[in-house]
Each structure stands twice: as structure tokens, then as C-alpha cells.
Design brief:
OB fold (Dihydrolipoamide Acetyltransferase, E2P); five-stranded mixed beta sheet; 8 helices; CheW-lke_dom; CheW-like_dom_sf
Amino acid sequence: MTQRSPEEYFRQHDFGSEAATGGGGEFTAAERAFMQKYLGVEEGDLLRRIGIDPARAGATGVAGGAGLEDESESLDARLRNEPVLQMVGFFLGAQEFAVPTEAVQEVIKYAAPTRLPAAPSFVAGIVNLRGRVTPLVRLRELLGVHDGGDAAGSEDKFIIVCRRRGLQMGMMIERVHTMYRVPQQDIDWAIESHLGISVDFVSGLLKAGERLISIVSVDKILDCVLKR
């Protein structure tokens, strides 16, 4: 397993470009499903509050539909067949987690979201990130991370922005640690033996020396956001 800094990795990838984010353009089916579920009758007011035109269905620019939603195979299934995986390691409190870079669009500093009255507690709200409706997820709550007596020194200061199946989503984290380049043999997909946190949103374990780092399943979190 090799490691490199997040700065080195993200310098080589233009995650902030319009092509990468699908900036502006039509709402995707996933965005519409999210808005109908959580914005309700206040949809127009909430979208305008974050600077997005609620009537842009026929807008020009990069459309959010076709190429961005054609991901029928789950990311977790595809990762099991990759000889080498790249991961972003990050911390929530004292616990390190990892997320596949294939799902990561960029990492940004925390921005306060606009709250949604109808959303569950793990959805902190929405932000406008380059013209896309972007829900922010409290990853600590979904993963069952409890900081105990050290809670005063722990807060989410960054957002890992992911995009899957037409929805751009931000996962709130405390800090980015490093980048991992991991051979398949260093991944344990038998997570049923893992104890200590909720495994509902974990797809596997990355072996880093004597440590086991939980791999967060972006697809499972996305399903949770859209189905609840």
C-alpha cells in the first residue's frame, strides 16, 4: 500500500470544472426526487435562498440527466473487481475512515447549509455548489461515531463532495488524513466481523499496517438519503 498527500492528488484532478460538476443545466431525476421529498411546498423559496433558479428545467448548459445517471452497477460491486483502489482517508473524532476516490468530486471547507424542515436529522441541509442542489450529510450520525468526553475538540470542518447517479452530495468530516493506493488483497469485504460502529454504511475494511479502516459506502448513503 502506498500513500500520498490529498494535496498531491487533488492538484492533478480538475474536480471543480463545469464538466466535472455538471454545473447548472437541467435538474437531474435524482435532484428532483430529493427536492420533492425534502423541500415540499417550500421548494421555490428554498432554492432561491441558495441562489438556484427553481424554473430552470429548460435551461441551457450541461444537462444533469443522461451521462450522470447511467450508473446501474453499484460502486461497491465494481470496487471488488479492481486490482488497485485509491482511497481518501479522513477522520471523524479519533476514528479514521476512507472513501473511494472514484466517487469523490472534491474536498471543500465546511459551509453552513440551508436547513430543511422536513429532512431527517442526518441531513444537515442543502448548499448551492456550482449550480447543483447539494445535500450535506452528517456522517457521524449515520456511522454512529460518538466522541465521548473529547466532543468539545471535535467538529466537522470539511466536506467531501461526492456524485453518484445524478445527485451531488456532501459528507461532513472533521479532517482529511491522506490518500491511499491499495491493492485488492489489502481490502477485507467481510464486514460482518467488524465491531464498534454501525456497518450499515460501510462496504469493507482497508488494512493499513495493524489498523483496519472502514470504507464508507457512498451508494448506501445515497440510497438512504433518497429513500427516507
